[in-house]
Structures are given as C-alpha cells and as structure tokens.
C-alpha cells in the first residue's frame, strides 16, 4: 500500500493534475479573450457556423477524455501490480483494504469522499448499479460493472471512471468555439511545419560546420602525406646517387690498385732494367684495338663480370690462355682486390698484356706458381671451344635481360 500510494501520488500529480491545470488556465485565458471579442463584435454569429464549431469542440472533448481514461487504466494497473498485498490488514473483501485517502492523495477533489463512500457501500452490498454509458458529446466511454466483487482492478477503474466526468472544465462553448476558430484560421498544419524551422536551420548550420571541419582535416592529412612522400623520394634518390658514386669510386680504386701491384711486380722481376711508371701506362694505352673491341662487346655498364671476362680474354688471346687459366686469373683479381666487384677496362688491359708477355707475368696476376699456371694450359685445348660457346650463350642471355629492363 505504501508503494501504491507513492506511485499513485506521483503519477496523478505529474500526469493528470498538470494537464488539468494547464487546460484550466488555457480555458480561462480563452474565456477572457472571447469576452473581449464579443464586446467588440456586435454582429450575431451564424447559427450554421456555431453548430459546426460546437460539434468540432464536442469531438475534441470526446477524444481528450478517451485518452484520459487510458491513462487512468495504466495508473491503476501499474499501482496494483506492484502492490499486490497490504501488510497488517486482513479483510474479507478486497475494498476493505482501501480508504478514501488511497484515491485522493493530493486533495484535488477529483474523487470526493461522498462519492467514494457511496460507491464503496454499493460494492460491498453487492448491488452496484451499472455505470452510465458515455454520450457522444461530453462523456468518455465508461467500463461495465464487474461481474464479481473480487475483481479489484475493475472496481478501481469503475470508481475512477465515475470520478472522471468531474474533471470537465470545458463547459464554456464560447471558449471552445474560440479555440476551434483560431486553429481553423491560422492552420494547425502550417504551425506544425513552421515550428521546427529554427531547429532545422541550426542543425543545417552544424552540419555545414562539420563538413568544413572534415574538409580541412582531409586537406591537412593530404598535405602531410605529400610531404612524407616527397621526403621519402628524396631519401631514395640520394641513396641511389650515393651508391652510383661509390661504385664508380670503387672501380677506379680497384683499377689503380691492380696497376700498382703490376708495376711493383715488374720492378721486382726486372731489377737490372730501367722501368718507370710512365712506360707502364704508355704500354697499357697502346694495346691492340682488338682488346678494347672485345671488352666493349661483352661489357655491361662499362665493366666485366666473370663470364664476360673469360669470354673476352679467350677471344683476345685464344692461343696463349685456356679456360682454366682465365678462371684462375679472375680468382686472383678478386683475391687481390680490396673491393670485390666487376672489372674495369684498365685492369683487363693489364691482364691481357701479362698474358701476351708469358706465363710468368700471368701467374703473378693469378697469384699462383708458374708451374701450376702452365699446367692449366694443356687442359685448354680439348674443351676450349665448347666452353667458349657456353660462355657466349650465358653472356648473350645476360645482355638480353639487361636490354629488357
């Protein structure tokens, strides 16, 4: 019962009483406005128009009371479902657990004590009369009398339905006509459409601001991405240029080292002869043109790899070097080079010159004994042509791949 009292008090006070007060204030204001308008306007109203407006007002009242009755049912159902028992009382009839204070919690006079006691006595006596049926003009449809006294929910609904007609405050037909006239003159639909216009305008402004902010964020992100791409491309280009420069420097350094070593070997072997560096350079630059042509024919990017070196050397000196000797010369070149890699034309000329001068100088380039170098020469005759053709095929395939790139 305590929970039911709190629920009924809150829901009645917040839903019904506020609506009744608002309607009462509106009717009072409209009544005053009607009095002022009737004082100003002395022309009699058209009977046909008055009857039509009256019918509209009655229909409006009917719909209002129908909605109020559904709210009353919801209030009663919710209260009784959460307060099914009442502590401290045992009664033979369900209504004995309820008093007038359970229904009139806020003293608004909707249910008077006399009406409650009269209805309660009739219910307890078991001969409750049938409630009056609602008319089409002013009263909402009421509930039928419950078939059994124990149907507490139906009894409470009946009591509230009997008390609901006392809420009617729209008795003033002049005020009703005034309300309907105002709605018809201005247009309810236009008012509903124009009502949310400021809200829609504000929402549109907020959407536009959000779109602009999103566009700024996208532009900022795009600019940052372009800066990152530009910085990355700059680093890649710088790394590529650095590798190219280092490669060229390595080739020059490798060729210089090879010439210096050849010069030192010549000096040691020709101790009694007068040899200077200018003579070595002159001899290297005056080599036969066939060596340069063979080098250019098989070179890639101005340098020689192992297969290209062997093929060019076998073509430059076919009678003085074998396949195995060419391989040993390449191994010696790699062993004595500080930076391993392809061979430049100056180093190739020096090796060709050593091969032409004899096995002794060629063995110095291969960094092996002269007898071992000479023993590899006899193995060149049976297989030299086949190996040369294989080297040519490999070099041709490599040149094809380089051209396709």
From TrEMBL:
Protein name: Gl protein
Biased composition (Low complexity): 389-405
Highest taxon listed in the record's lineage: Eukaryota
Record region (Disordered): 381-405
